[in-house]
Amino acid sequence: MATLSAAGRRDAESRDYNANLAECPGHQLLATLSDKWVTLVLSALADGPLRYSGISRIVAGASQKMLTQTLRKLERDGLVARSVTPSVPVRVDYELTALGESLLPVQRAIKTWAETHIEDVATAREAYDQR
Amino acid sequence: MATLSAAGRRDAESRDYNANLAECPGHQLLATLSDKWVTLVLSALADGPLRYSGISRIVAGASQKMLTQTLRKLERDGLVARSVTPSVPVRVDYELTALGESLLPVQRAIKTWAETHIEDVATAREAYDQR
DNA sequence: CAGTATCCGTCATGATACTG
DNA sequence: CAGTATCATGACGGATACTG
């Protein structure tokens, strides 16, 4: 068969796009940064190292599952360092790596845009909604 | 009742956190920016106005539903302007607003960080995975 | 203290079909 | 051309219970 059905072509394009997206550094970063808990954990650690319980106190809304999952992800990406002190009971400290700290300015840039323009967005939404 | 159960307290904290997050400008922006299709549509329009079909050609992997949904969201937030020409058949043009364009530098900043540090992340992941 | 294991509801995504 | 409507599914977050 030389030709592809329209559906077949769409499928192929879709696969290509998804594959490209998955590999795109920018999108990977956005996926990480936009994670609800990632944001909070990162800012919690911005002020210095914390123990597991410390983080969970600051990021009060996180379930254990989400907190651990988030910390593992950040550790895997080299943004956060995890150090275990094998006392009884064990003590685990988390802190930002240099890589993790280099992300803070980006976070700030986003925050700045948001704070600067949130009013405009809110206004636009109101205008759009009652119409 | 003066006291709350542990579960009750967690619930309350969770509600507070989620409410705060939902209102947090930074997180709203991140939620928008990290959307797969938002990113692509925004960069498609960065080069100038496009018609619906033009966007769908460039952002080839998007279903009609997702494309329309994304465009509506962007329009609602005032990032994109939609103009209908009531010819037969109808013609609809989309273009970035000033607000939308002001977002492009932020996108670039993210892209730059990602491209600069993606290697480090990849290395960290490898180190973490085979362990 | 710092997790792991498991189950379950919801919610967004995307495929398909239809329309002014 | 530029959408809207509907439906299935699958990933994800959260609650709960258990452990070294």
From TrEMBL, chains A, B:
Q: Which Gene3D superfamilies match?
A: Winged helix-like DNA-binding domain superfamily/Winged helix DNA-binding domain
Keywords carried by this UniProt record? DNA-binding, Transcription, Transcription regulation
Tell me which PROSITE patterns the record gives.
HTH_HXLR (PS51118)
Species: Fodinicola feengrottensis
One matching Pfam family, short form?
A: HxlR
> Which InterPro entries does this entry report, sorted A to Z?
HTH_HxlR, WH-like_DNA-bd_sf, WH_DNA-bd_sf
Keyword Lyase attributed = no
Q: Which domain of life is it from?
A: Bacteria
Decide whether keyword DNA-binding is in the record: yes
Query: What name goes with this protein?
Result: Helix-turn-helix domain-containing protein
The HTH hxlR-type domain, residue ranges: 24-122
